[in-house]
Design brief:
Number of domains: 2
Order of helices and strands: EHEHEHHEEEHEHEHHHEHEH
CATH class of the largest domain: Alpha Beta
CATH topology of the largest domain: TIM Barrel
Distance between the termini: 18 Å
Shape: globular
Helix content: 40-55%
CATH superfamily of the largest domain: Luciferase-like domain
Structural class: alpha/beta
Length: about 325
Amino acid sequence: AICVNEHHQNAYGLMPSPNLMAAALVRRTSRAKIAVLGNGIALRDNPLRVAEEIAMLDVMSEGRIISGFVRGIGAEYHSLNLDPTRSRSRFFEAHDLIVKAWTEPGPFAWDGEHYQYRYVNPWPRPYQQPHPQIMVPSQGSPETLRWSAERRYPLSCTFVPIERLKQFYDTYREFAAQDYGYEAGPEQFTFSSVVYLHPDSEAKAREEVEPHLRYFRERMFTLPLPSFFPPGYTSPQAYRTRVEIAREVKASGGPTLAAGEPLIGTPEQVLERLNNNLGAIGAGTLLGTFQIGDMPHSRVMRSMELFAERVLPYLN
């Protein structure tokens, strides 16, 4: 899938409207899935609009949409004049409203804590039935792990060292097995990493990619931790974990190097490392960042072509 996401008023993400970008991609593609990872539904005063837009995109693409739902980071609540302490409850309610709008066969009223509608009956309905696959990008809080496991939603955690990532996914598996009576498979977990390939050597790959990794760390990803997780945004336990992860990330060289060993090298080296990492955490999906900082488009395309031709067909 081709992935887009949502961020507001920061240099890290330049897509304040991921559905608009997804519509452009639907027009330019015919087979690729489009993964919106994801809509910041807790940031919306009218989450029903997300239900309508994703359904419309799913119809336009004939069922190629993956719908991710996210809460957004703390700085986005501040910039949109929203209370970050109500983020989680807004997220859960917005999710429930959207799913019901996709699946309820007739008009219904909604009287929730955050959202009220006298009449909900969106058209069109999604092409995929009962609705597009839902995916949850997360920072690994226990609350989100349990909530996702209960609904069997695939989970993706970014900027997390691989040892922590395995802990998060093992916790999800425990919730699934002990509380919800099923065995979570690799299709429910994602490994996220920077990916850069050079045809000749790892040394040349690192020489080419390092300036752009540095640009990302120093120019695009500079918000302090409280801007991501302001007071009340997450539980004390989850915040303590994030502080520990931030220290681990800093020690590893910066956020783009945080998800285990980055996939940088020749196609053969990247294939071996990717298979090892997927196996270590029990994940079946790679979420690869191929566009790294200010890297020129020609190098991005060369790396992606090498990956498509010499890595992807040989994954375990």
